[in-house]
Amino acid sequence: xxxxxxxxxxxxxxxxxxxxxxxxxxxxxxxxxxxxxxxxxxxxxxxxxxxxxxxxxxxxxxxxxxxxxxxxxxxxxxxxxxxxxxxxxxxxxxxxxxxxxxxxxxxxxxxxxxxxxxxxxxxxxxxxxxxxxxxxxxxxxxxxxxxxxxxxxxxxxxxxxxxxxxxxxxxxxxxxxxxxxxxxxxxxxxxxxxxxxxxxxxxxxxxxxxxxxxxxxxxxxxxxxxxxxxxxxxxxxxxxxxxxxxxxxxxxxxxxxxxxxxxxxxxxxxxxxxxxxxxxxxxxxxxxxxxxxxxxxxxxx
Length: 301
Prior knowledge:
By secondary structure, the protein is an alpha+beta fold. The protein has four helices and nine strands; from the N terminus they run ααβαββββββββα.
């Protein structure tokens, strides 16, 4: 008993100078609430990020990367002017990817459905069986609405513009700017046949020859193989391309329609390998027997 008392006194003497210099240790203890009084719960700490979420493994710089609300390099202040070539024309080439917002016609657009396409659109709202989720190519504007956006590259030497789709099946679209016309008897494809021309700072793209195996945007608007689109790309500043589209499909709509939206640059982002077919359970979740997917073992995009 005597030894324990001496040990306690020695510890107290040793800690006294340390506690005297610690402001937190000098605070008076909080008063305990009276018996029966309601206690105020302490503020809950923010939950730890879910390391098994679908965004895990997204390369640094992606807008969808954990802990990032914006893409790397995205300007926070006023945008710089659009860069220009030696000829004076605006250039589309940029290290980064472009991501779009809204559907083909933009928000609030009244779509001139035919009776059958209105019924198909209503069914799509319920079932949402979009081909993109089953690794099909994302034709037309849908390219820019994938989770990772698309890269636009102009190669003047061969007079072509390429749009590289990062997500999905990792495909690309070719726009010919050499003055050619559409060939006859086109074989329908996901991207169709695109010819482009420059009108000042605007790239005008005319496309026909689409197949019916994709959705034209993230919305529910159907189309047929009679689809004919006109797209206008105008880079208004360093971070923005104004994207205007006209949809003419007499097999699906009562008249041409379209709208305007913006593509936003996610600068300094590189293309990366993305294998859609590997561990893709979207179809099982939609129409199969899966209710949940175990993501404890993560694929690398």
